[in-house]
Amino acid sequence: MPPEPANPGIRLTGVTVTREGTDVLRDVDLTLDEHRIAVIGLNGSGKSTLVRLLNALVLPTRGTVRVGELTTAQDAKRIRRQVGFVFQNPENQIVMPLVAEDIAFGVKNLGLRGTELTDRVDAVLDRLGITHLRDRESYTLSGGEKQMVALASVLVMEPSTVVFDEPTTMLDRRNRRRLQRTIDHLDQRAIVVTHDLEMISAYERTLVVHEGRIAFDGEPAAALDFYCRISDS
Ligand SMILES: Nc1ncnc2c1ncn2[C@@H]1O[C@H](COP(=O)(O)OP(=O)(O)OP(=O)(O)O)[C@@H](O)[C@H]1O
Ligand SMILES: [Mg+2]
């Protein structure tokens, strides 16, 4: 099998997602290859549907989503190794009783064992500054701690892109800023759905989703103006 390119772009071509007879996302053509991309828009506009397409959590009704040479319809498993997904609610993501086991879970499935496995888990705990949570029982963690563990479980897989769907909504101001800094320092491409407009001011690109379409695609400041106009209309 040829090696995957280091950080392949994600390309959506003619993508429509239909649910119960309605197009919740329509005719989307996008190439996502910037380092920091924000997705904003009103409730129900289609943001989660859009980002869930990127790692095959949602498949297009029409059109194609490609990550490098792979397509989500055919290569979901390989794509999920490249595109990690952090949910709004970390409860949906934490599956094992102990923090270290939870973070090890995915890499174990890749066949890593012994010190190779523990070293990789410890490295990600260290990187996120949560080594003290290593041997805790997952259910005893606070919401903010769970969010960091959920992120660790994604990063340990060493994806080239990390998608966040409203990662800060459950967090207090301090943890929100902490997660924001963590995202800012990620080597990976980050694609972030958020209502936290402060967070995205330095992002390279912002998409505004409106009524199932990409209604604006450009600089954050202009995107925010556009978003304010549609919010007030
Ligand atoms: N499986 C489904 N069945 C029916 N409708 C769906 C389904 N999935 C999504 N929708 C509808 O598609 C629209 C877009 O949903 P989506 O979750 O993408 O919105 P969103 O922009 O993420 O909203 P929010 O800001 O509230 O999270 C909504 O009207 C939603 O009810
Ligand atoms: Mg959503």
Number of strands: 10
Radius of gyration: 18 Å
Tell me the span between the first and last alpha carbons: 52 Å
| Largest sheet strand order | 6-7-8-3-9-10
Low-confidence stretches: none
Number of helices: 7
Shape: globular
Structural class by secondary-structure content: alpha/beta
**Overall residue-averaged pLDDT value:** 92
Q: Helix and strand string, N-terminal first? A: EEEHEEHEHHHEHEEEH
Helix content: 25-40%
Question: Strand content of the residues, in percent?
Answer: 25-35%
CATH superfamily, called what?
P-loop containing nucleotide triphosphate hydrolases
Bound molecules: adenosine-5'-triphosphate, magnesium ion
Number of domains: 1
Largest sheet: 6 strands, mixed
CATH topology: Rossmann fold
CATH class: Alpha Beta
Concise summary:
The chain is of the alpha/beta class. It has helices spanning 47-53, 76-82, 99-109, 114-127, 143-155, 173-184, 220-232, and strands at residues 10-19, 22-32, 36-41, 62-67, 70-71, 83-86, 161-165, 189-193, 205-210, 213-218.
Please describe what this structure looks like:
The chain is of the alpha/beta class and 233 residues long. It has one domain: P-loop containing nucleotide triphosphate hydrolases (Rossmann fold). Helix content is 33%, strand content 26%. The protein has seven helices and ten strands. The chain has helices at residues 47-53, 76-82, 99-109, 114-127, 143-155, 173-184, 220-232, and strands at 10-19, 22-32, 36-41, 62-67, 70-71, 83-86, 161-165, 189-193, 205-210, 213-218. The strands form two sheets. The chain has a six-stranded mixed beta sheet with strand order 6-7-8-3-9-10, sandwiched between helices. The termini are far apart. The structure holds adenosine-5'-triphosphate and magnesium ion (MG). Residues 47-48, 165 line the site of magnesium ion (MG).
